[in-house]
Amino acid sequence: MTDAAPRARFLVLHDYGMGGLWWWVWARSAREVTERLAEVEVVDDPEAVERAGAWDLEETDIDAPVLPGGLGELRARRDAQRGRPGFGALADRAVVHLRLDGLYGDDDRSVYLMEVEGDGRRLRQVELTEDGTALRSGPEDWIFNPPVVDLFDPDLPEKEIGREEFEARWRRARHDDSYL
Per its UniProt entry, which superkingdom is the organism in (predicted)? Predict the structure, then answer.
């Protein structure tokens, strides 16, 4: 990418679970935004972009020496990841299967097998509980489905599992109706 490349304004969201931080970021591409800022998504839904136009969001350039509150930390986090083995190894994949431990705090002893799409959102999930129960769920079960992983994260490739392993666990798991 060259500095002479034309820039566009992107609506950027960092969803931290119970809310989110929003900015307008000028960059050369949506890919540049996600490659340079950790744990963000570029929101391209036309209705969401139109709604956000009425909000008083901070606007910045991806190359600004100082970024607005919150965004600077996400760039620093990404800068620390860049150059590590595995950085961006999963970023261009349409679907990835992962094994993740205890996603929901220190008391969570479950293992989660996830099928995620290229933007880090879950497509399907199998929760392996501490007692050996396998529970499956999908988008129809979740009220919200924000990105749960950042596919540029250099730690993720070691957590990748094969599609066959995921499918076998999915078939054996029972539907998790606790979301209903």
Answer: Bacteria
Residues 112 and 56 in one domain: no
For residue 148, the tally of other CB atoms under 10 A from its CB is 17
Tokens linked to 61:
């350039």
pLDDT digits (tens, 9 = 90+) for 83-129: 999 999 999 999 999 999 877 777 878 899 999 999 999 999 999 99
> Which run of H or of E encompasses 134?
strand 134-137
> Which tens digits make up the pLDDT trace of 141-173?
988 888 899 999 999 999 999 999 999 999 999
Q: Among candidates 101, 110, 93, 102, which has minimal Cα distance to 152? A: 93
- 114, 98 in Cβ contact below 8 A? yes
> Which token pair is 44?
């391209």
| pTM > 0.90: yes or no | no
Looking at the domain assignment, is residue 86 inside a domain?
no
Q: How far apart are alpha carbons 74 and 38 in whole angstroms?
A: 5
User: Do 150 and 78 form a contact (C-beta atoms < 8 A)?
Assistant: no
Under DSSP, is residue 114 helix (H, G, I), strand (E, B) or coil?
strand
Range of the domain at 51: 8-81
